[in-house]
Specification:
The protein is an alpha/beta fold. The chain contains 7 helices and 9 strands. The chain is 28% helix and 22% strand. The model has no long low-confidence stretch (mean pLDDT 92). Its EC number is 4.3.99.3.
């Protein structure tokens, strides 16, 4: 009997510095998955939203991108590991992002990466069940009242190792406080991330972090001008 191979639709695979949350400054390999129905208005990766079969390309074309695009490749777990080795990447931390990576079962990929000596982190909106390895670090960036109409899951909030919330207005802060109370989250580290690095959003985030003993995430990679 033929064993089914687990494959993932990937928009980008690259090495850089993690610029957000607890792992800020950590050399990391980003695996950006294609597909997201959540519909955040301020999303900076809208090119990953749609999965158009006509835009599937070979892995070499995906890896050779020089600018953002909605072209994607489908790679098996084994091909992902082979690609990381072939690219000569030195980082030992893997960030699974998107898009919305938790639309698919990430456990086979996480387990294979960990067996190969990598640590894993997933960045998710909290609107899908999180299927990862036990050791995977889960960053939930809860997307409240977005166009897609998806609810934040209690299981996702409970699994989070950190909560990273984009803010621009007091309403965003109020939504987060309500969410934390609803899901009875008291001990998980909370990061506020100013949307688009705007001065007013940054001032609000700093003030709110101090008032609530939360942490600030400022998207260091964008200030540095790197991917």
């Amino acid at each position: 009997m033929k064993v089914k191979t687990t494959c993932y639709k990937i928009n980008e695979l690259f090495e850089t510095i993690q610029g957000e949350g607890s792992f800020t400054g950590q050399p990391s390999i980003f695996i950006r998955l294609q597909g997201c129905p959540v519909g955040c208005s301020w999303c900076d990766t809208k090119h990953t939203w749609e999965i158009d079969p006509q835009l599937q390309v070979a892995s070499d074309a995906m890896l050779g991108k020089t600018q953002e695009s909605d072209y994607w490749s489908e790679l098996s777990v084994e091909q992902i590991l082979e690609t990381i080795t072939a690219q000569g990447y030195q980082a030992k931390h893997i960030v699974l992002t998107g898009g919305e990576p938790c639309m698919v079962d990430l456990k086979p990929l996480c387990e294979a990466l960990e067996q190969a000596g990598f640590s894993c982190q997933v960045e998710t909106s909290g609107t899908f069940e999180i299927r990862v390895s036990d050791n995977c670090w889960v960053t939930v960036s809860p997307k409240v009242n977005m166009r897609g109409g998806y609810e934040i899951l209690t299981s996702a909030m409970s699994r989070a190792n950190e909560i990273k919330h984009p803010v621009a207005t007091e309403q965003h802060v109020d939504e987060l406080k309500a969410l934390l109370a609803q899901h009875q989250i008291t001990a998980t580290p909370v990061y506020l991330q100013p949307i688009s690095q705007k001065p007013r959003a940054t001032e609000l985030a700093i003030k709110t972090c101090i008032e609530n003993n939360w942490r600030l995430s400022v998207q260091v990679h964008k200030y540095l001008g790197i991917e």
